[in-house]
Design goal:
Layout lengths: L11 E5 L28 H14 L4 E5 L9 H9 L6 E6 L4 H11 L3 E5 L5 H8 L4 H13 L6 E5 L9 H11 L2 E5 L18 H9 L4 E3 L11 E5 L5 E5 L12 E4 L4 E3 L8 E2 L1 H5 L4 H13 L19 H4 L2
Parallel strand pairs: 1-2, 1-10, 2-3, 3-4, 4-5, 5-6, 6-9
Antiparallel strand pairs: 7-8, 8-9, 10-11, 11-12
């Protein structure tokens, strides 16, 4: 088990497959991009699968989500998913992506064993997309979403981060688009994880604001809170259901007390929280020939020291050195 000293048990492993990306979302990366992690530091497919095998067989991980950076840029992704699906006990496998490339990859990923997918879409307006992501790729994202749905990766979830003065007028339009297409919409509060440290609390569109904007058009009814479990999204039935919308108030409505997540970066570091300021190196012992028992011990120690909360609302909060794109969102 991966237990911490506050009684939480991590069962959900978020794996960053690369820190590289083909977009430059302003809440994540500067327009000029970042210095990517050096290639030799990146776990090979075999090294990654060895760690995932230990995670499900020895450490109680039941769900693996691949993310990044942009995970569709990882060469060999389909094979990584297939090898993950062959692990025993088989974990649930999901993917968070910006959607670019899904027209080609959605069906092979589904066949390889991918169970669920989240696609990030912050705007339906082409000019806003370019302003926000610095690339003219909205059409590719929309085509990718359609390909995911056509490949039966249901329910397709759509993630949006709203930013004041940029796309905060699009909450209703984005939800309507998802209702029309059978996608499940989730709005995420912007967190202080961008590489350029530009997050300002006053610019963050809060969960309360998002719910107020949606409630002007839709009847929202809180879904059964007992169903929430460790899920970060508060879920609401839209116009009586069955369609739902999720709101993830990571900053104003933190859910750290129920957190069941642990993260593995593409260079083989365990992080017990998105906001952790320390990481535990598994790559070096792995490459030095450590046996499974030693890797299990190191991983357990890494999780045991997890802090009770992310501390964003504390006066002394310090943003982690690694940006979101290198941690895995
Ligand atoms: N490139 C993929 C994507 O965009 O879906 C996967 C990685 S991305 C870091 C994962 C998720 O984190 C995306 O939904 C993105 O919108 C979200 N994200 C990135 N930076 C964020 C921030 N500062 N605050 C809140 N969410 C953020
Ligand atoms: Fe790339 Fe995802 Fe970051 Fe946007 S949020 S820059 S798509 S890693």
């Amino acid at each position: 088990m991966l237990a911490d000293s506050y009684g939480r048990v991590a069962t959900d492993l978020r794996v960053s497959l690369t820190d590289r990306c083909n977009l430059r979302c302003s809440y994540c990366m500067p327009p000029e991009g970042l210095d990517w992690l050096p290639a030799p530091t990146q776990l090979t497919d075999d090294e990654l699968i060895r760690l995932l095998d230990i995670a499900v067989r020895r450490l109680g991980i039941t769900e693996i989500r691949f993310t990044g950076g942009e995970p569709l840029l990882r060469r060999g992704l389909v094979d990584i998913v297939a090898r993950t699906a062959a692990l025993e006990p088989r974990p649930e496998i999901s993917l968070t992506t910006n959607g670019i490339g899904l027209t080609r990859l959605a069906a092979p990923l589904r066949r390889a064993g991918l169970d669920r997918i989240n696609v990030s879409l912050d705007t339906l307006d082409q000019q806003t997309f370019v302003a926000l992501a610095k690339r003219d790729r909205l059409a590719d994202v929309l085509a990718g979403l359609a390909a995911a749905a056509a490949s039966h990766l249901a329910p397709v979830k759509v993630n949006a981060v709203l930013m004041r003065g940029v796309n905060d007028h699009e909450a209703v339009g984005l939800l309507r688009f998802c209702l029309d297409h059978g996608y499940e919409m989730r709005f995420i509060e912007q967190m202080p994880l961008d590489a350029q440290h530009g997050w300002r609390r006053s610019d963050m569109v809060t969960a309360d604001e998002i719910l107020a904007a949606l409630s002007a058009t839709f009847a929202l009814k809180a879904d059964d809170p007992d169903q929430r479990g460790s899920a970060p999204a508060e879920s609401f039935l839209v116009d009586g259901g069955p369609a739902k919308v999720g709101v993830i108030g990571s900053v104003t409505r933190p859910f750290c007390g129920a957190c069941d997540r642990v993260r593995l970066t593409s260079d083989g570091q365990v992080r017990n929280c998105l906001f952790a300021r320390q990481e535990s190196d598994l790559r070096t012992p792995l490459r030095a020939g450590a046996d499974d028992d030693e890797l299990v011990r190191r991983w357990q120690r890494a999780v045991a020291s997890k802090l009770p909360g992310h501390g964003i609302n504390d006066p002394g909060f310090l943003q982690p050195a690694r940006p979101m794109s290198a941690i895995g969102g």
